[in-house]
Amino acid sequence: MKNTILTLGVVALSSVTFGQKLKLTEAAVAYNGVAKTMWMMNPDGVQPAKSSIIEAKEAIDAAYAEYEEKGSAHNLKKSKDEAKLFYYRGVIYLEYPMIMAVSKDEEALKEMEANQEKYEGIPFNSLKKSLEIDDYYEDDISEKMNMYRGLALQGGNQMFNDGKYEEAFASYAGAVEMSEVIGYKDTIAMFNAGLSADKLDNYDDAIKYYGMAAENNYGGSDIYRNIIQVLNRKNGGPSDEAYTYIEKAKAKYPGDINIIIEEFNYHNSKGDADKAQAALQAAIDKDPNNPIFHYSIGATFDEMANAKHEAGDHEGAKLYVEKAIEAYKKAIEIDPNYADAYYNMGVLYNNESYSLTNQIKNIEDVAIYNEKLKESKDLLREAIPYLEKSHELTPTDANTLKLLKSIYFTLEMNDEYQVVADKLKDLGQ
C-alpha cells in the first residue's frame, strides 16, 4: 500500500511539473508568435499579434498562478526554468498593453486602467527577478530593454517638443525604469522626466526624478537649483523643505553662486536680513577680488529682480536691484575694464525705467504721473555713462549702440542719437 501511495505521488508530482512547464511553454510559443507578426512596423500584423499576446498572457497567468500557489514547493527546479517564467511574464506584460492600445481594444484598456498599478509593476519587476534568479536571459533582456528604452526616449523627445508634457513624462519615466532593469543609470532620462514633470507642475515627480539625477551627479549645482525652485513653487515660497536641498548642494558644490543666492533668498524670505547677508558675504570672503564672481552675483540678482517685476511684485524687486547694483559696482571697482559689468549696469537701469513707465500708465493724477515719468527718465540718464563706457571698451558691439540709440531717442538727445545711428550704419546695422 505504501508503495502504491508513493507511486501515485510520483505520478501526481510528474503531472504537476509537466502541467506548469506546459503552460510556460505555451506562453513562450504564443509570445514568439507575437514577434513574428512584426506588429510595430506592419499594421496588418496588429490583429494576429493581439490574438497571440492574449493567448500568451492567459498561459503565463496560469503558469504564474500555479507557481505562486505552490510557493517554495513549486516544480520549476532548475533556475533557468524559474528565470524563464519571470522573463516571459515580464515581456508579455510589457507588450500586452502596447498591443491592446494599438488595436484600440476598449474593454482591455478599461481593465488595464482599473489595474494600472499591476500593469506598471509586473513587467520590470519580473525582468529584474529573472536576472536575479539566473543570467540565462540576460542578453535577451538587455536587447529588449535597450530597444524599448530607445523608442521611449525618441517618443519622449517628440512629445516634449510638441508640448505634450504628460506623454513625455511617461516616456522618460519608462526609459528610466527600463535602464534600471539592466543596471544602467540613464541620467539624461531622469533629468528629462523631472523637467517634463516640472512643466506640468507635478511637483512630487519633478523632485523625484531631478533628485535621482542629482544623486547620480548629473547637472551639477543647476539640478539642485531646479529642485529648490520646484519646492519653492510647491510651498508658495522659500521653505524649510527647500533649505534641506540648499544644505546638500552647499556640501557638494561649495561656493556655487546660484546656491548661495538661493540661501540668501531663503533667509531673506524669513525676515532674517543678517543671515541673508552673511550667506552672501561668506561666499565673497572666499574670493573677494574676483570680478567675475561679483559680476555673477549681480547678474543673478538682476535676473531675480526681473522675475519679481514680471510677477507684478515691484516692491519685492527693489532689494534685488540694490544687490545687483552693489555687485556690478564692485566688479567694476576691481576691474575698471570689465565691459560686461558696465553693459549690465546700463541694461539694469534701462529695465527699471521701462518697468516704472509701465507701472504709471494708468495713473490719472497728472502731477503724480509727471513725477514718476521724471523718475523713469532719470533712470535712463543713470544708464548712459555705463553704456558709453561699455561702448568705449567694445566699440563694435551693436547691442550696446542700439540701447544707447533708444535711450538718446527717448531723452531727445538728438546729436548723440545721430552719432550712434551713424556708427550702427557703419556696422551694417
From TrEMBL:
Superkingdom assignment: Bacteria
Pfam families assigned: TPR_11, TPR_16
Signal peptide interval: none
UniProt entry keywords in alphabetical sequence: Repeat, TPR repeat
PANTHER family associated with the record: CELLULOSE SYNTHASE OPERON PROTEIN C (PTHR44943), TPR REPEAT-CONTAINING PROTEIN MJ0263 (PTHR44943:SF8)
Protein name: Photosystem I assembly protein Ycf3
